[in-house]
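Repro:
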Amino acid sequence: MTMTLARARDIAGAVRIETRAFIDGAYCDAAGGETFLSINPATGETVAAVAHCQASDVDRAAAAARRAFGGGAWSRAAPEARKAVLLKLAELVRENAEELAVLESIDSGKTITDCLNEIGHEVPTFFQWYAELADKTFGKVAPTGEDALALIVKEPAGVVGLVLPWNFPLLMAAWKLAPALAAGCSCIVKPAEQTPLTALRLAALAAEAGLPDGVLNVVPGEGETTGAAIGRHDDIDIVSFTGSTEVGGYFLRYAADSNLKVIGLEMGGKSPFIVLEDAVIDDDLVEHAAMSAFWNGGQNCSANMRQLVAASRAEEFAAKVVARAKAFVVGDPLDPATGIGAMVTREHQDKVMGYIAKGAGEGARLAAGGNAIGAPGTFIEPTVFTDLTPAMTIAREEIFGPVLGVLPVKGLEEALAVARDTAYGLHATVFTRDIDKAIYLARRLPCGTVSVNGFSEGNVTTPFGGYKRSGSLARDNGAEALDQYVQTKTVWINVKSPVGA
C-alpha cells in the first residue's frame, strides 16, 4: 500500500480519535475521570486527552470479561463461529487501513510507510491466519487398553490481560489478540500509554465484526497504575506482556503477589548481526545490516545493533553501512519519502542520546550521525559507531534507537563467543556462504530466532520469543502462540464391554 503526503494529511485532519476506554461492549470514561495526554512526537503537539484507567476500571473490565467467558457466547462457541468473526475483523482492518495507519503514525512517530505495511497487510493477516486455525486445532486420544478411553482436550484458559508495547502498537495487539480470541478467551488489552489510539479504534471494529460484549476490553493508562492493576488482579488468569525486561520482572512479582497467574514475556534484546569472512558484502547485505538496526528508528526489541564483522572485512563493511545510513531521510512521518521517523517521546530521545554520548566517551569512533534534530520533534540521525569492543556500554545494553555499532571479530569462534556474551537472547542474523557454518552458529546461538543471509523475524507461521532475559517459554506467532491461551485437560473414561468379554 502507498499513500501521498497530501492524502495522509487530509486523513490526519479528519481522522476519528476515540479517547475513552472500551469496557463490556461500550466506550466509557475512566470512572474517576482521569486522563493523560497523547503527544505527536513529530511535532510535540497534543493529539488527545485519553482516559486513564485506574484499578476500579480494570475491575470493571475483568468483571465484564469473566461474565462473557462464563456465559459462553464466545468461549463455548463453535470454532467455525469464532472463525467467521475474526475473518470479518480482518476485512474491517483492511477496509480502514489508511485511517488506522495515519492514526498510528501521528500517535507514535512511526513512518506512514511502515504503518501502512503493518496495518494494511500484517495485522489483518494475523486475524485471518488464527481465524483459519480456530477450526483446525485438534486434541488427542492417548494410547490405552480397551478398558479406557483417554481424551486430551484443549480449552480456553479464561480471562487474559494483554499488555502492549509502544513500538508496534496495532501489530502487537494483533499478535496477542488473534490467538487469544481464536482460543476462546476473553481479553483485557492495555495499550502503551504513549500509543493508545489504534487499539481503542480496533475495539469498535471488533464489535462491528460481531465479537460479543465483554470479550474484548481496552483499558488505556500508565504502566504503574493500569498495568499494575492487571498484573495484580485475582480474576485475570494469564498476562501476555511485550516490553522491557525491567517491567517484565514486575509482572512476575505481580503474579506472585496475587493469584499466581501465568505470565508470558517477550522482552528486550541485544541482538548480533554476524558477518563472517566469506560473506559477500554487496548491496543486499548492507541493506539488511542497515534495516536490522534502523528499521522503526531502531525502536525494535530484535534490532541487530551489535554488528560483529570479520576483522578483515570490517573496514569495507563499515564504509558501506555509513553510506547507507547517510542516505536515510529523517523527518515528517506522514511523508512516504521518510525512512526514519521520530523517537516516541522526548524522554526516550534523551535516553538514546545518552547512549550515543557514552559510546563516544568510551572510545568508539563516531562514523555517522550522532545528533538530535528537528525540534520540537524528537528525531535522531541514524548513527554508526565503529571500533567497538565487547565491554563498551553500547555493545552491551539495549539502546532502542537508531544506533549501529561495528565490532570487529577474528574468526567464527570469537564471533560466537561475543554474540553469546549477553544477558539477552531474542534474535541473531548470520551472513555466510558456508551452510555448515550457518547451521553451526544457528544451533549454538542461545536466542529465539536465528536468521541466515537476511534479517528477518519470520512471519505469522513461525513462533517468536526469547531466551534468557529476552523472554519466557511462551511464544507469540505460529501455532505455538495458542499454547499461551489454552488449558490442557485429560478426560479419562472407563469402558466396560457390553457383552462381558
